[in-house]
């Protein structure tokens, strides 16, 4: 296969984005987003960063290892014990404040509640990462009021609600249409196109075959035109494909990230920042977007 067919360069709506205090050129740059979960029941870290001091250590480690972006969440996507609005705010706001005092990196908050988003923006967050598909249009109102950026993710169920045996006639076509409609809804509520990012939602109300199909056909999502985020880190479709337990999926994750970037992804949401940053930098250099750190081989 020729290079022109192997790599997809989407025509992006406003590829140059200023998000918070950072500026990105997504026509030739990939941002690494570090996951910071302040939850006792997150699917991967299983509460290791639930304590505030542990969450702030995770923030510092992510920054040391090159994260461009911190994604802070206080409630998992999956169903679980109820968490009140007040408790979610108490979980995320101190981490946002602590992160903001340490860095000018982008800070997003993952929530489905307008009240939490508003509190996070007041504490210094730049982005709302909404994994529930903008089920509540009031979320877009809060983002518009704050002049923030909005990540819209495909999912079918209401927040924290089971959705057994999801069915699609064509998962990629349906995900793409959903994202187009929700982006249009966000714009109607005052979020400009240059502050919208889309995420196809790997594994969210999808089985492994669906997530593999999405990955294989990611250019069809990227061609919508908004910068595309992929959140594939250590997910179950990787574990089921490779027969790997939750803590043993790094190789599959890196392979999926590389394929996703070559298919148009420009933001990658990851648990393992060190490995992901190295993979992203290597892909950027192969594509001619980033010079080598140094060149000595066969020059001496």
Key attributes of the depicted protein:
globular; single chain; 16% strand; alpha/beta; 300 residues; 10 strands; two-stranded antiparallel ribbon; 11 helices; 8-stranded parallel beta sheet
Provide structural commentary.
- There is one protein chain.
- With 300 residues, the chain is an alpha/beta fold.
- The protein is built from 11 helices and 10 strands.
- The chain has an 8-stranded parallel beta sheet. A two-stranded antiparallel sheet has the order 1-2.
- Helix 4 links the parallel strand 5 and strand 6.
Write the layout of secondary structure elements.
Elements: H1 3-6, E1 16-19, E2 22-25, E3 31-37, H2 52-64, E4 69-73, H3 85-100, E5 106-110, H4 114-123, E6 127-130, H5 138-146, E7 149-153, H6 171-188, E8 196-199, H7 208-216, H8 218-222, E9 228-230, H9 236-242, H10 250-262, E10 265-270, H11 273-286
Parallel strand pairs: 3-4, 3-10, 4-5, 5-6, 6-7, 7-8, 9-10
Antiparallel strand pairs: 1-2
Helix pairs in contact: 2-3, 3-4, 4-5, 7-9, 10-11
């Amino acid at each position: 296969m020729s290079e022109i067919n192997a790599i997809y360069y989407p025509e992006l709506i406003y590829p140059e984005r200023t998000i918070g205090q950072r500026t990105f050129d997504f026509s030739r740059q990939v941002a690494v987003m570090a996951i910071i979960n302040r939850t006792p029941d997150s699917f991967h870290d299983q509460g290791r960063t639930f304590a505030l001091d542990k969450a702030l250590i995770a923030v510092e480690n992510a920054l040391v290892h090159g994260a461009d972006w911190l994604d802070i969440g206080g409630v998992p996507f999956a169903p679980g014990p109820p968490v009140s609005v007040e408790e979610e705010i108490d979980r995320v706001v101190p981490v946002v404040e602590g992160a903001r005092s340490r860095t000018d990196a982008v800070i997003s908050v993952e929530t489905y509640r307008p009240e939490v988003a508003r509190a996070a923006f007041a504490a210094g967050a730049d982005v709302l990462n909404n994994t529930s598909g903008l089920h509540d249009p009031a979320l877009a109102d809060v983002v518009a009021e704050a002049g923030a950026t909005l990540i819209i993710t495909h999912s079918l169920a209401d927040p924290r609600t089971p959705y057994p045996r999801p069915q699609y006639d064509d998962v990629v076509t349906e995900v793409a249409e959903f994202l187009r409609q929700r982006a249009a809804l966000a714009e109607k509520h005052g979020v400009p196109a240059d502050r919208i990012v889309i995420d196809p939602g790997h594994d969210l109300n999808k089985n492994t075959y669906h997530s593999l199909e999405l990955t294989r056909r990611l250019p069809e999502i990227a061609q919508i035109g908004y910068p595309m985020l992929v959140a594939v880190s250590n997910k179950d479709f990787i574990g089921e494909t490779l027969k790997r337990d939750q803590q043993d999926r790094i190789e599959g994750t890196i392979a999926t990230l590389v394929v996703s970037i070559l298919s148009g992804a420009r933001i990658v949401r990851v648990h393992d920042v060190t490995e992901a940053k190295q993979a992203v930098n290597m892909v950027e250099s192969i594509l001619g977007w980033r010079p080598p750190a140094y060149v000595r081989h066969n020059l001496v």
